[in-house]
Amino acid sequence: MFGNTMIQNELLTYFESKGYNVDRNNDVAVIKSFSKPEDEIYSLYNGVGLRHLHNASIIELRGQDSADFLHRITTNGLKDFTKEQIRKTIFTTEKGRIIDVVSVLNFESHLILVGDLNNKIKVMSWINRYVISDDVKQSDANHRFNILEFSGPQADSFMTWVCGSSVSEIPVDSFKVMNVEGILFFLAKMKDERGFKKYWALTDTSHTIRLLNYVLENTGPFDFNLIGDEAYNSFRIEQGIPAAPNEICDLFNPHELNLSHLIDTKKGCFIGQEVLARLETYDKVQKRLTGLTFDSQFDINSEIQLVDSENLEAGIVTSFVNSVKLKKPIGLAVVRKSYLNERQELFVKSGDSKIEARISELPFKK
Questions:
Q1: Which of 201, 213, 359, 366 is paired with 168 by a 20 to 30 Å CA distance?
Q2: pLDDT at 114
Q3: Are 214 and 164 in contact (CB under 8 A)?
């Protein structure tokens, strides 16, 4: 973690030199906003936003059994996983609960796992637990890399503007080495939850600030903005994107968070497979991630219980925000399916009062 902190300080110093305010709370330092949150949200929905993934966990796996090992212990198939491909998979417990959702990048000589910093120690411990005679060696790679994410409807055109026409030659869920004005980095192309192409620039520490400078000097005719934590958190809740530690944690299983598409049902056993298969086969998934709108704001703690009119437990509110786009309090919750069907009145308790909550389909509509 020392190395990651060092990178963070280097980037924060860079952003402070550009005149941006850094918010520090104990050991955590973030930039809540680079401009008006409304402008940043506009870029995410209509243009292109650049976000530093400061909460990313980066783990390196080396050894000839690495892909086969992940194939055996995680939810998705990696048997046909070839060089420069990207595949998303989930580490789950024996009970089918989520440890972390990771994107795996295949460098042929090694794999890079990109997950969430909140779950990093759990993932590394889990890997150590199940590596027995496999040729698999893991290491913490946060000190070596930064990840810059470019997303939004204009992201594809923007990356062509910045990097050239070779961007079109990168298949979705793949990455290539790029050289832009002597700045070397890996450019990964994926699709976001809305179906738009998004990009990760995976850079070593010596090239990150050079790439940032180059991008900021060449924003061209695009609706471009740097994205701070406030705008992105509002955006991800509006879009119903689960994140650690709120949703991506061992309280829930993939079916409950609408992540069943990351489970390969044909590949055979993995840790938690029997439980997850039984839940799906016999329609035993009792809860689902859904959206909520609220009558007023409230203080959220680690677990806010959602109750019905008779004070019976209906679910858990996992994330809450005063939406920048919708101009009203909204949230994410994992709710019992019976309440989703009946559309009953639901409430959260705030002190001595109850605040009404209404079910909303995801993503939220204005």
A1: 213
A2: 98
A3: no
